[in-house]
Amino acid sequence: MSDLDSLQSQILTAVAAAADEAALDAVRVAALGKKGSLSAELATLGKLPPEERKSRGAAINQVKDAVTAALSERREVLAAAALDARLARETLDVTLPLREAPTDAGRIHPLSQVMDELTAIFADMGFAIAEGPDIETDDYNFTRLNFPEGHPAREMHDTFFFNPKEDGSRLLLRTHTSPVQVRTMLTQKPPIRVICPGRTYRKDSDQTHTPMFHQVEGLVIDKGSHLGHLKWILAEFCKAFFEVDNVNMRFRPSFFPFTEPSLEVDIQCRRARDEIRFGEGEDWLEILGCGMVHPNVLRACDLDPDVYQGFAWGMGIDRIAMLKYGMPDLRQLFEGDARWLTHYGFKPLDIPTLAGGLSS
Amino acid sequence: MKFTLSWLKDHLDTDEPLEKLADKLTMIGLEVEGIEDRASRLAPFVIARVISAEQHPNADRLRVCMVDTGDGAPVQVVCGAPNARAGLTSVFSPPGSYIPGKDITLSVGTIRGVESRGMLCSAAELELSNDHDGIIELPDDAPVGAPYAQWAGFGDPVIEINLTPNRADATGVHGIARDLAAADMGTFKDPTIKAVQGQFPCPVTVNVEDETLCPGFALRLVRGVNNGPSPDWLQRRLTAIGLRPINTLVDITNFMTYDRGRPLHVFDAAKVKGNLTVRRARDGEQLLALDGKTYTLDSTTCVIADDNGVESLAGIMGGEASGCDETTTDVLIESALWNEINVAQTGRRLGINSDARYRFERGVDPAFMVPGLELATELVMELCGGTPSEIVVTGKTHGDDRIIDFPLNEVKRLSGIEVPLVEARRILSHLGFTVAGSGPVVKIAVPTWRADVTGKADIVEEIVRIVGVDRVPLTPFPRGDDPRKAVLTPLQLRTRRARRALAARGLTEAVTWSFISNAQATLFGGGKPELTLANPIAADLSDMRPSLLPGLIAAAQANIDRGLGDVALFEVGQVFRGDRPQDQFVAASCVRTGLASSRGPGRHWSGSAPVDAFDAKADALAALAGAGAPVQAIQVTPLSEAKNAPGWLHPGRAGALQIGPHNMLGFFGELHPRALKALNADAPMVAFEIILDRLPETKARPTRAKPALDLSPFHPVSRDFAFIVDRTVKAQDIVRAAQGADRKLIAHVTVFDVYEGKGIDDDKKSVAIAVTLQPRDKTLTDQEIEAVAARIVADVTKKTGGTLRG
Question: Most CB within 10 Å of its CB: which of B88, B97, B556, B766?
Answer without folding.
Answer: B556
